[in-house]
Write a structure and sequence with these properties.
The complex is a heterodimer of chains A (about 375) and B (about 400). With about 375 residues, chain A is α/β, with parallel strands linked by helices. Chain A contains 8 helices and 24 strands. Chain B has a 7-stranded mixed β-sheet with strand order 5-4-1-6-11-8-12. The chains are: A alpha/beta (about 375), B alpha/beta (about 400).
């Protein structure tokens, strides 16, 4: 059951605005050593998808740098592998107006493929899923599209891109866009399977009529008018959505829980990322670390509690880091205190300074900010 | 071949490493884990690329499976090249004289055709079982400057250690006057590091002659260097001042791991700038240090879940240390599991070893190292006394 993967640029569907000003959602660092796109890329590779197109837009330098030759995902293939799909601008410039326009840019790529199926995926939410099962379920269902969705366990105060009403977790009763999912409703995991030829035909037809929005114009409109049959694939393991800063912060800290870690980092389906060749992390004699998730290359002489430390973070003597998410290369000077905060990459907090946020609204320091 | 290389490396990685006992039962010495996320061979390979040498022949013989798998196409060391790169060179059958590698010199002799493919001016001969960071290009510059035919890298050892090493005597210009393996009365404290640069013609000639001598042990240190000296060839000694350790014994392997924790950072103190050690990476998530854990003066690699107490130790990728367990002054190799309440002190735990809950490994007043072999299981509450190898 041959499939080709197509990953959206991540320009839509949002994310923590404070952290994605200068990067796409795909290259947002997460979980100590990853970027959000690592999850979807690894899912595809682990599911035997060897042809993956990644649609890019502007401001994608950090994503391209991260992907490099794609060696770390084993996608540096002679036959197939990863293909960056640059913006498509027939006489117009400017950014894509919607994911349907992104798909239009990917049509030549899709036409060159021979696979029967296409797995379309957003770079977030984050999950570890065997896409082979989704494709098999889709093929067996006879539907024109299958979307992966997860049931909301509680009323969700935040908006989801696509909310699905389903009486039985299989049939779809109704679709809402940018909607807050009540308990028992389903939300899309941003993963859709379609027949390649069917997708090409739909995209061409809709683009020709000026439609730009994937969920609204292709899925919802097609579903409501009965021109697109859509099935649901119910996913039962944890799914992490980083829609706002508070959610991003909470989800990072959630990775310290074994059940979440076991669901996302499965030995038989690892999440790959760029290899940085950092040395293992050093914990000094006077350090005190508890309840933390810590990547390689850290140098810890102070105190770290209930925090996530990305690669190459330094915590000086007498410094305290508590309930914080500290991205790679940041330095917390001697005696400084950081609490309830998200520090972007390469932030330096000088000796003795205090950065304290509130648990529900963490303080944010921007990339390479020095305080 | 119209393209050629200035200098290529031949890395001797075929040794059994029998003095590492259980750690090399199923793997070659160069593939033994070191320093949390490395294997011993990473140091020599990284030195090569960091020194601008992009062609490395890796001579394997003993238990090569794991090593071959580890090296792969050489990509982690940037040695996946179109012309050159990393090449595994096992013994192979020929139309005549089929044989295993009889000695270090014979191993290189059997691969002269590999060397000839690149027509290098110089050949660097390395061991795959030393821990050090060295810029070989400086040694090569010295070799050229002296107009040497062969240059040995030497380092200063304490007088007590000299009788166990190959000791080099030099004149004022660092020209080697004599060389003696394990001398009873050492004439100097300059020990050979088993690391040589040869002019290609000299190497080819002496290896070929050595092969004709049935009495030869086909060893660089014992046969080739003495033969060069006997003929009055220009052999020079290049003094390497940085950190260098032969990790051929359990004690030295343990000690070199502990040296990583030395606040003076001997490995990096005199290292050339920007010399990073590269390794093949397992896609493991970051490590978790649980609330009940306590970690001090230790290195912990990724993929671990630490619930116990770790002090003065090196814990490698993917280890699980249970609540109430205590690990002191030990080297825990990748994928090991230590059960709740177990105590590990001054020990080396091999790759994938399992220590049952409440077991006691090492400790006590003795200074000797306890070792648990790779994949071995120590049952619940079992005791492995200090100095025991199992």
């Amino acid at each position: 059951m041959k499939a080709v993967g197509l990953i959206f640029s991540g320009a839509y569907g949002g994310g923590p605005e404070e952290l994605i000003r200068d990067r796409s959602a795909g290259s947002l660092p997460f979980g100590g050593r990853y970027r959000q796109i690592d999850f979807v890329l690894s899912n595809m590779v682990n599911s035997g998808i060897g042809d993956v197109g990644v649609i890019t837009k502007y401001k994608d330098q950090s994503l391209m740098e991260h992907l490099g030759t794609c060696q770390d995902w084993d996608l540096n293939r002679k036959r197939g592998g990863l293909m960056l799909i640059p913006p498509f601008s027939p006489g117009l410039s400017g950014e894509y107006r919607g994911k349907l326009e992104e798909l239009r840019a990917a049509i030549p790529y899709l036409e060159r493929q021979s696979a029967e199926w296409v797995v379309l995926a957003d770079t977030a939410p984050l999950l570890n899923i065997d896409l082979r099962r989704v494709i098999a379920a889709h093929a067996a269902s006879g539907k024109e599209m299958t979307m992966v969705a997860v049931e909301a366990e509680e009323d969700d105060p935040l908006l989801s891109e696509l909310v699905i009403d389903s009486p039985d977790g299989q049939r779809i009763g109704g679709l809402w866009l940018r909607y807050a999912a009540a308990r028992g409703k389903y939300t899309s995991c941003g993963i859709f399977v379609m027949r390649r030829e069917g997708l090409i035909a739909s995209v061409n037809a809709l683009s020709a009529r000026g439609f730009t929005h994937f969920e609204r114009d292709l899925i919802q409109r097609g579903f409501n008018r009965g021109t697109l049959s859509v099935g649901l694939y119910r996913f039962d393991r944890p799914v992490l959505k980083n829609r706002t800063l508070a959610e991003y912060y909470r989800n990072n800290l959630l990775l310290r829980e074994e059940a979440i870690r076991d669901a996302l980092f499965r030995p038989e389906a690892p999440i790959y990322t760029t290899v940085r060749d950092e040395v293992p992390s050093y914990y000094g004699s006077g350090s005190s670390v508890s309840g933390c998730l810590i990547a390689d290359g850290c140098f810890i002489e102070g105190r770290a509690e209930n925090s996530v430390l990305f690669r190459g973070v330094t915590i000086g003597k007498g410094a305290t880091v508590k309930n914080a998410v500290i991205m790679s290369g940041s330095v917390i000077g001697e005696g400084a205190a950081v609490e309830n905060a998200v520090l972007d990459k390469g932030v330096s907090v000088s000796a003795g300074r205090r950065i304290v946020g509130a648990p529900q609204s963490p303080a944010v320091l921007r990339k390479r900010e020095a305080v | 071949m119209f393209r050629r290389k200035e200098c290529i490396a031949m890395l001797l990685a075929g040794g059994q490493g029998s003095r590492l006992h259980v750690l090399t039962e199923r793997t070659a010495k160069p593939a033994v884990p070191f320093g949390g996320k490395y294997r011993i061979i990473d140091f020599s390979l990284s030195n090569c690329v960091n020194s601008g040498i992009d062609t490395v022949g890796i001579l394997t013989q003993y238990q090569p499976l794991e090593l071959n798998d580890y090296i792969g196409n050489g990509q982690p060391w940037d040695l996946n090249r179109n012309f050159g790169g990393a090449h595994i060179l096992p013994p192979y059958t020929k139309s005549e004289n089929n044989m295993w590698y009889k000695g270090t010199a014979n191993a290189v002799y059997q691969n002269l055709s590999f060397i000839e493919r690149y027509s290098p001016d110089h050949v660097l001969v390395l061991s795959g079982d030393h821990i050090y960071k060295m810029d070989y290009s400086r040694m090569l510059a010295f070799h050229r400057e002296k107009g040497a035919e062969c240059t040995l890298s030497v380092h200063l050892v304490p007088e007590d250690d000299a009788p166990r090493m190959g000791i080099v005597g030099v004149d004022g210009s660092m020209r080697v006057t004599d060389f003696e393996e394990k001398p009873l009365k050492p004439r100097s404290c300059l020990a050979s590091m088993g690391l040589y640069i040869f002019n290609r013609e000299t190497l080819v000639r002496y290896l070929t002659e050595d092969e004709k001598n049935p009495a030869s042990r086909n060893d660089f240190g014992r046969d080739i260097i003495p033969a060069l000296l006997a003929d009055g060839r220009a052999v020079y000694a290049y003094s390497f001042g940085g950190y260098w350790r032969d990790v051929g014994t359990l004690r030295s392997l343990w000690q070199a791991n502990m040296d990583l924790l030395d606040p003076a950072d001997p490995l990096n103190r005199n290292a050339p700038p920007g010399f990073r050690v590269y390794a093949r990476n397992d896609a493991q998530p970051p490590s978790v240090i649980a609330s009940c854990a306590s970690v001090g003066h230790s290195y912990i690699a990724e993929g671990c879940v630490i619930r116990g107490k770790i002090a003065g130790s090196v814990v490698s990728t993917g280890c699980r240390i249970g609540a109430g367990a205590s690990v002191r002054d030990s080297v825990i190799m990748p994928g090991s599991t230590i059960g709740e309440g177990a105590e590990v002190c001054r020990a080396i735990l091999g790759e994938g070893s399992e220590i049952g809950a409440g077991a006691l490994i090492g400790g006590g007043p003795e200074r000797s190292i306890s070792v648990v072999g790779g994949g071995k299981r120590i049952g619940e509450g079992q005791i492995v006394p200090a100095g025991k190898i199992c």
